[in-house]
Design a protein that fits this description.
Elements (H helix, E strand, L loop, with lengths): L5 E7 L2 E7 L4 E6 L13 E2 L5 H11 L16 H10 L8 E2 H7 L6 H9 L12 E2 L12 H17 L9 H4 L10
Parallel strand pairs: 1-4, 5-6
Antiparallel strand pairs: 1-2, 2-3
Helix pairs in contact: 3-4
């Protein structure tokens, strides 16, 4: 079986995203500011029609009408990374957790650095919500798309959560915004 990487570009209110697929599921979602956005090569095939459902869900998210993505995903990574990325999908819109909180949730409280490293390798930004992981004490910390984008996403989700039916408690942005800093995870 021949494997062909397909892609499209999606224009959002916060910039253009590169969406990547293996032809069956989404394998990547990268904002243009992402530090590891892959280069589109000649062997890739642009397929806007394949990504129509993903673009519709992203549009609903940015319009404040979508709380949970239902896109079929197939991220490439180690078994540990995939466990972390699956746990990220459990963090509800409008809420955050810390690296140590996520490590504890995974049953390995001493692995917060490894969790941070896996979080930073997440190839499906936004849909696998790695931006919802913040540092101890509510500080904004590393995000492959940049801290400004991370803050925008968290503020957008806080607003969406306040409007959503379901009573999700929005995050306390006053605690994170003025003290944002970059932390490099090893």
């Amino acid at each position: 079986m021949s494997f062909v990487t397909s892609y499209t570009r999606y224009r959002s209110p916060i910039g253009t995203w590169l969406l990547v697929s293996d032809g069956e599921a989404l394998t990547g979602a990268f904002p243009e500011s992402h530090r590891a956005v892959p280069d589109v090569t000649d062997s890739w095939r642009r397929d806007d029609a394949f990504f129509a459902g993903v673009r519709d869900q992203l549009s609903a998210y940015f319009a404040g009408r979508l709380v949970d993505f239902t896109v079929k995903l197939a991220p490439k990574g180690t078994p540990f990374q995939k466990r972390v990325w699956e746990a990220l999908r459990e963090i509800r819109l409008g809420t955050t957790t810390s690296y140590s909180g996520l490590a504890t949730h995974l049953g390995s409280p001493s692995s917060s650095r490894a969790v941070g490293a896996a979080n930073g390798k997440n190839p499906i930004s936004l849909i696998v919500p790695c931006h919802r992981v913040i540092g101890a004490g509510g500080l904004l910390t590393g995000y492959a798309g940049g801290l400004e984008l991370k803050q925008w996403l968290l503020e957008h989700e806080a607003t969406t959560a306040r409007r959503s039916v379901g009573g999700v408690t929005p995050i306390a942005l006053a605690a994170v915004s003025p003290r944002a800093r970059q932390v490099t995870l090893a």
